[in-house]
Amino acid sequence: MPNRYAYLGPEGTFTEAALRALRPEAADAQLLPCAGVDAVFGAVRRGEADAGVVPLENSVEGGVPTTMAELINGDPLLITAEAAVPVEFTLFARDGAAVGDVKRVATHPHALAQCRRWLSRHLPDAEMHTVSSTAAAAQSVAEPGSPYDAAICARIAGERYGLTALASGIGDRAEAATRFVQLSRPGPPPPPTGADRTSLVAFLSADHPGALAELLDQFAVRGVNLTRLESRPTGDGLGRYCFCVDADGHVADAAVGEALMGLRRICTDVRFLGSYPRADETADLTPFLPARTTEADFQEAARWLEDIRAGRV
Ligand SMILES: O=C(O)C(=O)Cc1ccccc1
Predict the structure, then answer these.
(1) Which domain holds residue 258?
(2) Of the four listed, 27, 37, 214, 291, which is most buried by Cβ atoms within 10 Å?
(3) Which residue stretches, if any, does this entry annotate as coiled coil (predicted)?
(4) In this structure, are 96 and 128 located in the same domain?
């Protein structure tokens, strides 16, 4: 079991909450807060930490760009666990301030994106500043001479840095959640549990019609369900993409193993990112829904298309 955990700090981030959810016994573990996601990757690569925890994707905003870029292009690390953590945002300021006094707000870009509606209604003229994490924003607001009047962060962070809550539950969507992953240096993946996920990045060979369909077919024909597909630029020029895939199952399963071999044959490169227990192991894993092909289904789809063409979206 890893004992030194690097995570996106400082104390009080949502990432720290995820780390505690991943390792309830982390009370005796050494927690190493890092100033950025790239610093977490660096600490694990250099062996200063046994594992690292970073945000991977959000149910509102999608992938976290630095995490995705490090996983795709950086020296390889393996995902060995995941956690899905609900995120609730609170606006915190120094003692005595009111919402009307707030001119400059600091927070993490994902928090900003998830509080837009509340901010445009309650602080339409305030300047928004993004910093490395929500807790870094709270820490900065608490400093004398801070350039910011308020931070959007977790309640625990605001309290940790001695701030006062001005408004809570300010996220646009109550059900917002973020998926965090634990990273380890390359080695054998954790053993299968029966409810696992496999992540990889596929770099397609020469651009041609049906290339993406061929990639998807490797999973479809073997009955492997995909839970995520995200295209990311490779960095080699416009129009060059790789595909980040999450699939149900473990690399030790025959179907997943064969799908990976199929990809290996049709892609220029495949980066295996890990097989690890699913956070939602109680989810219904019977994924197959028959296509809707009744007359009523066709008519409903035709009305839907008409609405789109008429701008009634
Ligand atoms: O800044 C934090 O606290 C993080 O852990 C990153 C983040 C920010 C907003 C939503 C989820 C995770």
Answers:
(1) 189-313
(2) 37
(3) none
(4) yes
